[in-house]
């Protein structure tokens, strides 16, 4: 599955450079218009992030998220500040297809265990984000000593199967994805589904990931500053 990305900040669609809130570029002041363009191109999935929520640890752009849900038929996965079961429930109840738990997977693993038990593994994704293969938390503002491998292994043990893996050093840079890292994790943990995030610059990056065994891919900045079109993504979307 190919997931064009919309990152929400102050109700607008933006991109950050390496997760830095001080390095923000507005992509579209109207995220709904952007989502409808994605849908009109024939793509069926959307990766949505509440950047304000990631920083504050609670839903912030809920009105925009609800409008995206109500006015498109896209399969929407949503992350950013989801740190309680009530928040998981809130988003799933408004029709979000699956939610991404990031920081809380490290700080409150019992939340993930409970959420998977209650809603099923198809509704819960764990975000594995960091630098130098060490997990970053709190909207990428803090670093930890936990490795990517450790968190994937721990979350597989509680029933998680889908992992969005982001090398922050690549995110928003158009420098190419970390294929070595992504394929290594997929091969080491064959029961996982590693979802690639960060660094996509052109359509060859996408097909190279697919050739390496990574089939779910998030494409953000490359659609606006890089060399990727929605039409190209539709061609390679399985």
Quick description:
Helices cover 36% and strands 30% of the residues.
β-strand percent reads 25-35%
Number of strands: 12
Shape: globular
Distance between the ends: 6 Å
Q: What order do the strands of the largest sheet run in, or round the barrel if closed? A: 1-4-5-6-7-10-11-12
Largest sheet: 8 strands, parallel, barrel
Unreliable runs? none
Helix percentage: 25-40%
Q: Helix/strand/pairing class, anyone? A: alpha/beta
Average of pLDDT: 93
Rg computed from alpha carbons, rounded to a whole number of angstroms: 16 Å
Q: Please tally the helical runs, counting DSSP H or I stretches of 4 or more residues.
A: 10
Order of helices and strands: EEEHEHHEHEHHEEEHEHEHEH
Question: Would you kindly provide a written description of the structure presented here, covering whatever features stand out?
Answer:
The protein is of the alpha/beta class. The protein has helices spanning 31-40, 51-56, 62-71, 85-93, 103-107, 109-119, 148-156, 179-188, 203-211, 230-236, and strands at residues 2-9, 12-17, 20-28, 45-50, 75-79, 98-101, 124-131, 134-137, 142-147, 162-167, 193-197, 216-219. The termini are close together. The relative contact order is 0.15.
